[in-house]
Amino acid sequence: MSTKMKAIVAAASAAAMALTLGACGSGNGNGGAAGAKTAVSYSDVEAALKSDKDINLTMWAWSYDTMKPSVEAFEKKYPHIKVDFVSTGASADHYTKVQNAIKAKKGLPDIIQLEYDALPQYAVQGALVNLAGDGIDENIGKLYNDAAWKNVHVGDGLYGIPQDQAPVAAWYRTDILKQYGIEIPTTWDEYEQAGIKLHKADPTKYLGFIDTSGNRQFIQMLHAADATPWTVDGLKDITLNLTNDKSKKVAEFTQRLIDEGVLAAVPSGTDEFNRAFADGKYASWIDGSWRGGLFATGNPELKGKLAAALPPSWGSSADDVQVGEAGGSLLSVTTTADTKEKQAAALAFINWVNSDPESIDAFQTVGGSLFCAAKSFQSDSKYAEVDDAYFGQKVNEIYFKAAEKINTNWSILPYNNQMDSDFKDIVVPQMKEGGDISSALAKFQDKLKTYGTEQGFNVTAK
């Protein structure tokens, strides 16, 4: 989620959360308290596809071009279910439109695209249908990657169907590593030693960077280290623990890497950063799997000079690696779909689009390759064995392995976007040589507790 979009979602949803948290229960319309579980069962979903009764659905998404062929294929196969599919433009515009419709209590479509880190906020506001009807988890959940399926749950509720995900991977400048006699590291200890060697040989180069434009990279590291900086129980109860031993270890280690010249503390996404990366100032990039697809278009000059790998392990060997995530989206059914028939048809549609092999094939041929959350994608050898001309590797094999290694012991804060804003205000200024990231985490935790309490959550800090 972009910085601009995070600010929009955080500002728009804060007031709504404060109003709705105190009244969690069943809700109807385009807002209100968290909704009761749908009466739709898995057998109803199957029946919706076989029915001859016309159903009209509306859907908003920013990934219009990517999804349009799949939507058309569904309508051709099931002509009685019509989908009025509307592009909401850029993702920031999408969230603005969704929040405005919720606030106005009118105009929200039956189906909306969301990102995993935005989902809890909308579930709390009561804008989404809890899809956890009889047989849904058992029969639909098995179609998706375990981590992705966990991501569409908030508390005991199911609030969407996973579409894509972004397991963290690493990309290394093999030409630079070869020049300095450095092997691709498999653990963070190896990464540190490799980075020290590189920076000592050429002080203008760093093995990598810690991104100061937001929380994403550092939170990925906490996720992969199984640090569990917070847990969320249900819709209202949050426990913060950013001062636990594992979180401290990640903070202190990151600070050491900055002080040693292994990592440069810089914001990504700027022209200056992009030029520096292309020029070889940073010899690696650790991010979500989607990043790999951007190199071919953004850095054609690096063709054959980048190699994909699993990210470094916090354990003693590559076998111990756990992986964080950096994005991913889903499709949710909103409370606008206020009849059992509509909810069944909507659920049948979003599940088909996100898991049926025909739809998966369409995703791989439009606008690049979408890293689908469906097992029908991640277990298919025809995708794993594709030789990527840019990398000269079967990179999907690496991304699929990373997806298997995602640490599922993870919760998403229901005010994740406010968390990012506070992170930039409190933690980022300490991401510098001689900084104190560990102490900043304690102050960061205090701010998160204060904000959460003000919004009506029950927040405990350890």
From TrEMBL:
It comes from the Bacteria. Residues 1-25 form the signal peptide. InterPro entries: Bact_solute-bd_prot1, SBP. Keywords: Signal. PANTHER family: ARABINOSE-BINDING PROTEIN-RELATED (PTHR43649), BLR3389 PROTEIN (PTHR43649:SF14). This is Extracellular solute-binding protein.
